[in-house]
Amino acid sequence: MKKIIPITLIMLFLAFSCQDDDTENPLIENDNIDTGIFGRIEYARADCMPGNTNPIDFNNYNGEIYFIIKSELENLGNEEGAYEELKSNSIHFNITDGVLETELPEEVYLVLPEDVYLYDDYNTVTIESGVALYKNFRFKKCVSY
């Protein structure tokens, strides 16, 4: 009986220490946000040449982050400068050390750092009333192709 308790404690420790921090976790709560998003943003500048096998070194993001309303982007059209205008009129603010924590109006957004364009489910978030969404992001800026 005395051997069962230490073994159980070790198994519990191993089970909880192996959890991946990069996944969404609906059990994490944030008392600072009523309706919005929180998490971490990592960023890397990398060589995107085919055959490059060098590992990508992601770091906590420091810079401007944009929340562009997805439906507005989809209805944008081809006018010159329209994307830049939409981006500048979107919700945006500075991120320090990768910490993302902000209130947002209910909407579907594309989350984008200043110098990366990615239209994907990965960086699409739906903000619902009364929900603080937990989501981490990793963005890569290709510096060569």
Explain this structure to me?
This protein is of the alpha+beta class and 145 residues long. The protein has 3 helices and 9 strands, in the order H-E-E-E-H-H-E-E-E-E-E-E. 19% of the residues lie in helices and 37% in strands. 13% of the residues are buried. Strands 1, 2, 5, 8 and 9 form a 5-stranded mixed beta sheet that branches. The termini are far apart. The chain has one domain (24-144): Immunoglobulin-like (Sandwich).
Helices and strands, with pairings:
Blueprint: H1 4-17, E1 36-47, E2 59-60, E3 63-69, H2 70-74, H3 82-89, E4 91-95, E5 99-103, E6 107-113, E7 124-127, E8 132-134, E9 137-144
Parallel strand pairs: 1-8, 1-9
Antiparallel strand pairs: 1-2, 1-5, 3-4, 3-6, 6-7
Give a quick summary of the entry.
The chain has 145 residues and is α+β, with helices and mostly antiparallel strands. The protein has helices spanning 4-17, 70-74, 82-89; strands at residues 36-47, 59-60, 63-69, 91-95, 99-103, 107-113, 124-127, 132-134, 137-144. It is globular.
Number of strands: 9
> Total helix count?
3
Helical coverage, percent range: 10-25%
The CATH topology comes to Immunoglobulin-like
**Anisotropy-based shape:** globular
CATH architecture: Sandwich
Q: What is the CA-CA span between the terminal residues? A: 62 Å
Order of helices and strands: HEEEHHEEEEEE
Question: Structural class per helix/strand content?
Answer: alpha+beta
Low-confidence stretches: 6-27
Main β sheet profile: 5 strands, mixed
The total domain count is 1
CATH first level: which class? Mainly Beta
Q: Tell me the strand percentage band.
A: 35-45%
Radius of gyration: 19 Å
- Mean pLDDT across the residues is 84
